[in-house]
Structures are given as structure tokens and as C-alpha cells.
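Data card: per-record layout.
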Amino acid sequence: MTVSEATLTVSPRFVTGSLDRRLFGGFLEQGGRAIYSGVYEPGHQHADASGFRQDVLDLVRELGVTTIRYPGGNFVSGYRWEDGTGPQALRPTRPELAWHSTEPNTFGLDEFARWVPLTGAEPMLAVNLGTRGIEAAIDLLEYCNMPGGTAQADRRRQNGLLEPIGVKMWCLGNEMDGPWQIGYTDATSYGRLANQAGRAMKALDPSIQLTLCGSSTSDMATFGHWERAALEESYDTVDFISAHQYYCERDGDLQSYLNASTHFERYLDDVIATIDHVKAARKSTKTVDLSVDEWGIWYTDDHLQDVAPDEWPTGARILEDLYNYADAVVLGSMIISLLKRADRVRAASLAQIINVIAPIMTEPGGTAWAQTTFVPFSQAARGAGDVVLTTIVDAPRVDSERFEQASTIDAASTFDDTRGVLRIFAVNRHSSESTKVTIDLPGWDAVASAHVELLHSPDPRARATASERPRPTRHQVPLDEGVHFALPPVSWAVFTIQLTGTSSSP
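The structure for this 506-residue chain is written out next.
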């Protein structure tokens, strides 16, 4: 097997920015089995008195998500939030148009508000700007965030939620540029509505942060124009604009798939450039940041006819991708892309987290288990330090048919000053060649110890199963000749370097 060489250079003097922990958020949509037989399954042997599966909760905690975006996604554009509040026996059952299902509303806002604190994450909510608008948005905000003494806040208290839910981050609709979206519209009309709703919401609670819908993907014909036009109508009101992007292997072209994060990075940079264009044109001193509130691996071609037109099921098996080791490496490379832009990407939501294009899977009445994609996300969410350092990569490059030429090795670094720990998250995205990686650490006093945790399979298309959980292997790195380690093809690695001190602290 051919072995090439690469060097990663990390200095404490070159800082990308502070890490906002919301970069490691997740996404939970009321669709498929994400809720019913996922989060919520009364009568399951591991369910508590509220119907929340404790085995699922354990995995969500281990995954390390810091925020959870809810209830959509496509679902939110037709959702009446009130349906998920109050006594379950009095809640309506409705046809749900986004995923062609029947929604019993036995899990809704009240249940979500009780479930999220159990995960250790913060709630992030989306408001319906598809079939509804300003009034419903401020009613929902009042229900969630006002302490009491007003109609909706008192209604929440009567429903047993005595303290405010305290939602600080809100999405102003979802994918409003998409023809599949209920109530989709043009950018200017959407931007005006989002601005009106956002101004009203901030009049009620000035402490909240608002995310404007960006393009559904970079492939939309209106991409770029949409961001500019919507921001021109709402720049002074919003704090973020969203980006959504998914990838999957197509036609057996593994190398193109492994190079996909080059496309992801260009997309993120284009959105940031558009934000800054609007800022400059408005002569504004305010900076709007990026919330990548849907991203991940989604085999969309496998999900064209998940539900028959004459069926309206509840909790159908839709979008249940089973992931392999290559999927985990690509997801890891997307995490690296987000970390490298931590100065402007201040929030992100892995889509999704349970059963639906998710790292966590369940069986009704049965077990819950982790997929390959669980590993890189959990390691980054739980292991990243609070400072992102610029990582200079010197490595061979590899071509692909679908995406541009890419460095075989990609990496991002974070530093935990309180513990003196440098972590380098890396991928080898070459489909067949190993690469010997040398880590150069100018400016650091000394390395006390180093080890690497490696996720790799000789068969990159091998999948994990409920009975065989994917786990990284740990390797101690000898320090007699510096920090070196050979990364096999199609691999994800986390280097943990314990430092004895620094000559220049970030």
C-alpha cells in the first residue's frame, strides 16, 4: 500500500476564534420515528412515567449535543404549536402534510420542554411562517419565556410547566425557498415577514436570538440571491442566517464522496461573503453569523417514495439511513469544516439525532444503538476545547470527478487552556492510500504525552449493527522523534496532546 506524508502545524499564536458550544447542536423533527418509538414510547421497558425512553436519553447525553432544534424542519411549516400543549387526551389528531403522516400530538411542546433538560442540551425552537405568522410566533414565545401573569404564560403554568422554558434561540420558519415547503415564497416577501415577526418577538423578549432562513441547499437556483434579498429586508433584526447541506455517496464514487467537504466549505464561505456584502452595503457595524442548522449525511435518492399516497401512518420507517465507515469519515470532515470557521459559524444542528438520518437508532419495543456517525460527532462535541487554533496542512492532494481537488489530510485543532490539552481532529480522505502525519508544534514548550483514537475499517462500506457498536481504537504515540502517526485510508482520528506548558498561550 502506498504511504504518503503530511505535516500539520499548530501554533498557539494563530487563533481562529473562540468555540461557541452551540456548534454541536442536534435536530429533532416531528417526522418518521424520530419521536414515536424514538424519543417517546410509553410502555417500553426503558420508558419512564412520561414515556421517555431512558436508553435513548443515555445515548443522546453521550452524543453530547448542546442544543436541540425542534419541531422542524419541514414539519413546522404546517404546525399549530398549541396542538402539543395541555392534557394529551384533549389534543387533536391531524393529517401532517410535510411527511404525509397522521400526527396524534401525544408528544408536543410540553413534552419537549420536559425532555430537553434531561439531555443536558438547550432548546432551540422554530416558528411556523408557512401557514401562520406574527401572532402565532409571539404567542409561542410568550408561552415559552414569560414568567406568568399573561394569557399564554398562565396557560403554560396551568399545563404544569411552572417555570419558563427559556428558549433563547429561534428559527424564523424553515426552508422557505423550497417548493416542497408549505407556504414557500420569494426571498423579499419572506424577508419582510421574518423581519416583522422577529421585531415583534424581540419586543416581547429582547434577549432572544433569531435565525433567518437561508437557502435549503447550495444547489437551489436562487442560492446567493435568496440570502442577499432576505437579509436586505431583515438584517437589523436577525442574528444568524441558516445554511442546510447534506451529502451521500453516489454511483459508487467513493473518492468524490470523501472530497465532499471541499464543496461544503465553499458553500459556507459563499454564505459568509453574502452576509458581509449586505453588511457593507448597509454600512452596518453589526455582524450576522451563520447557523448551519441542518447538516449531515442523507441518502436522498433512497427516500423518494417512503409513504404511499393513500397511507397516513404515524411513526413510519422513513429516512432511516444505515451508515458505514465512509459516512462517518465524511461527517467528521464536515465537523472539521465547521470548526475551521468557528469565528463565523456560531451554531449548527446535526440532522437528525434519532432514527431519521441519525446517529442513534431504535427498535420499537427493543434496543437503542449507535451508528458509525455517532463516533466523530461525540468525540468532537465532548472533546473540543474552547479555543479553535488555525491548523496549517501540508499534504498531497487527490482528485475526484464530482468535487474539486482536495488535500488528502484535513484537520482542525482546539485548545483547552485549563487542562493544557491540544486536540487535533483529522481525516484521511484518500480512498486507498495511507498517510504518515507529522504534527509540528512551534510555540509550545513541551509535550508530556500523546495518543490518537482512530476510527477505521478495512471495508469503508461496512456498517455497524445493534449488536456490534463502532468504537475507535486507542494508540499511544511515541515521542522520541516527535509526534508521528500513520492514518490509514478513509479514516477519522482524534489526537490528544497533553502539554506541559506554552511559551505563548492562546
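Known properties of this structure: Residues 46 and 55 are 6 Å apart (CA to CA). Residues 502-506 have pLDDT under 50 and may be disordered.

See the next section for split statistics.
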